[in-house]
């Protein structure tokens, strides 16, 4: 048969880690997704509805914060849900191609996230 170990973390060898890991992932998806969505909406709302109150809002740091929030939102909505079936089944029940592309997308988002944090640190 086909090997299903190409996306299996070593920690899945123990059954005691599955449910807490799945619950943790779901909590991070919900809180991270909503928090970053709220950040994107609130900065856009302040910029377009209350521009006179916040004249210095639209600067390089704000743009980088928006990008960081967007990267984190994408990671929460595209990157993390893939781990739920991995932890539940002990392997990714999709094709190896799906595994490779989901890992690539997750890593690209993470790299963009890290580089954005570096850019924020440099501009401060």
Description:
Helix 1 runs antiparallel to helix 3 and helix 2 (60-79) runs antiparallel to helix 4. 70% of the residues lie in helices and 0% in strands. The longest helix has 32 residues, at 18-49. The radius of gyration is 18 Å and the shape is elongated. By secondary structure, it is mostly helical.
Helices and strands in order, then pairings?
Layout: H1 18-49, H2 60-79, H3 83-89, H4 96-123
Radius of gyration: 18 Å
> What can be said about the biggest beta sheet?
none
Mean pLDDT: 88
Low-confidence runs? none
Strand content: under 5%
Order of helices and strands: HHHH
Percentage of residues assigned to helices: over 70%
- Shape category: elongated
- In total, the number of strands is 0
Distance separating the two termini: 55 Å
State the helix count: 4
Q: Structural class, judged by helices and strands? A: mainly alpha
Kindly summarize this structure in a few lines.
By secondary structure, the protein is an all-alpha fold. It has 4 helices and no strands. The mean pLDDT is 88.
Features:
elongated; mainly alpha; 124 residues; 4 helices
